[in-house]
Each structure stands twice: as C-alpha cells, then as structure tokens.
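Before relying on records like the one below, remember that each one covers exactly one chain. Contacts with other chains, cofactors or solvent are not represented anywhere in the record.
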Amino acid sequence: MSNNNAAIVEIAQTASRFSSSIVLQAENKYIDVKSILGLFTTLVSNQSYELHVHGSDAEEAKKALSEVFQKHGLHFTVVEE
C-alpha cells in the first residue's frame, strides 16, 4: 500500500496546480482528485478509472495527471467531453 500513498500524494499535488475541476470516476463514485482523503478511500491499483477534467487549463491538467497515473501504473482513461 505504501507505493499507493506516494501515488495519492503526487496525484493530489499535481491536481492542485490547476484551476480546472478534476474528478476521478470509479464505478459509480466520483472523487475530487484534489482531495487526498477522497483518493485514500478510493484509489486501488487494480481498478480502472475515468478522469474528467473541465476548466481553462484542462489540457495541461490532463497531460500532467496522465503522466502521474502512468508513472504509478494506474489504469485510467481521460474522458473527452
């Protein structure tokens, strides 16, 4: 679980650099990626996630978070709306 903690902290810190709304969807739960607590209760490495990003810096946020997710081996898709 310790590598997961590093992933959670890095994801939240990365998300916090952006003004966009960044939400992770896991099954029927929606988590604000800027909330470390929300990530702790949801992020498990064998699950697949959808990343929803809305806002003025959404493109940069998607790119930065995609890199963090890949680095930690998390399965995700970025939802293009």
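The chain has a mean pLDDT of 89.
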